[in-house]
Amino acid sequence: MKICWFNEDRLGVIVDGALRDVSAALTVLPARSYPAYVGDLLIAHLDAVRSEIERVLPQAPVVDLQSVRLGSPVAQTGKIIGVPVNYQKHVEEANADVATFTGRYTGGILEQGLFIKASSSLIGCSEAVRLTMPDRLTHHELELGVIIGKKTRNVSASEALGCIAGYAIALDMTVRGPEDRSLRKSLDTYSVLGPWLVTADEIADPQALNMKLTVNGETRQETNTSQMILYIAEQIEWASRFYTLYPGDIIMTGTCEGVGPVVAGDLMHAEIEGVGAMDVRVLSAEA
């Protein structure tokens, strides 16, 4: 099932390429209370919501997909976890251009460790990436986004894929410079997720997906998730040693070679096999 948020507060599902408004299914969610639930309420109750979507779908109105604004398919993430240097050819391009990528980080994934992006940096594909540091290089980084579906701690790799609610296309936008990753990757709008959440049951093997990113029609990044150094199940196992993972937490699973700069006016097009495709504009902060 492909589930999305559109026009701020409407719940949608994509059926045969058409958007259906299934906001009526939200009635199965428990009432909000204080203190707030940790994590994303819809993701935590995804099975119940999916059942209700099936029930209301015959009466759900069709909405023009091209006329709506798609928000992040995770409305309330607790944290965004980044996995660095997870494709060998990206490691090689970074090592070959220390002037751009800096020599601050050395060693492999396990030596460099995970990093956290601010949840406030998260947007959907209909919003634009806004360049708030125009004097610095901003690079695109195409990644498979993994959305955690249940509270998870110290899970084994053999059980880790069972903790996934679904997948989405992720753009880990990055300002180049000497500061810590968590600062340079946490600017507002620098985490893009979309166009929708594809539930885990629709992806037979997340380690066999083709993915591609173009900028203004020029191919920049193209790979298959089989080329990851640390596979998704291993990432979840590793992350859950340090953090309790909650429904709606997002893991950005690493980028391949071909990362490059974007400037105001650019149009990024990203696609991942089995997930979908999305266009994301780049604007100046003032636009």
Percent of residues in β-strands: 25-35%
CATH class of the largest domain: Alpha Beta
Number of domains: 2
- Proper CATH architecture of the largest domain: Alpha-Beta Complex
The average pLDDT score comes to 95
* Spans where pLDDT lies below 50 across 5 or more residues: none
How big is the Rg? Answer: 18 Å
- What is the helix/strand order? EEEHHEEHHHEEEEEHEEHEEEHEEEE
**Coarse structural class:** alpha+beta
Query: How would a textbook summarize the main sheet?
Result: 11 strands, mixed
The rough form would be described as globular
Distinct helical segment count: 8
- Using the coordinates shown, work out and report the CATH topology of the largest domain: Fumarylacetoacetate hydrolase, domain 2
* CATH H-level superfamily of the largest domain: Fumarylacetoacetase-like, C-terminal domain
- Helical content stands at 10-25%
* Termini separation: 35 Å
Number of strands: 19
Ordered list of secondary-structure elements with their pairings:
Layout: E1 2-6, E2 10-15, E3 18-21, H1 41-44, H2 46-56, E4 62-63, E5 80-82, H3 88-96, H4 98-101, H5 109-112, E6 115-117, E7 122-123, E8 129-131, E9 138-140, E10 142-148, H6 157-160, E11 164-172, E12 174-175, H7 181-184, E13 191-199, E14 210-215, E15 218-224, H8 232-242, E16 250-252, E17 260-261, E18 267-272, E19 276-284
Parallel strand pairs: 5-16, 7-13, 8-19
Antiparallel strand pairs: 1-2, 1-13, 2-3, 3-4, 5-6, 9-12, 9-17, 10-11, 10-16, 11-13, 14-15, 14-18, 18-19
